[in-house]
Design goal:
Number of helices: 4
Largest sheet: none
Number of domains: 1
Number of strands: 0
Order of helices and strands: HHHH
Distance between the termini: 33 Å
Amino acid sequence: MMKLKEVEISVPKELRKEEVVIALAVELYREGKLTLKQASDLAGFCVEDFMRILSERDISVINWDVEELEKEMKNANS
């Protein structure tokens, strides 16, 4: 289970809390700091819906590093 830390930030009034949390989850996923599951949980969505959000923002749902990609390619060729 992921340990959580509470943070407080100030944002312009015209931004809804949900928008900010989604943007944060998307960016942390894009940077590889959160897994797909962790980011979807942070954003408050199931994994499928979060994948749609990523897709709408042109962010790949496959966030592998080179080593993981090579492993997957090797497994696919087996």
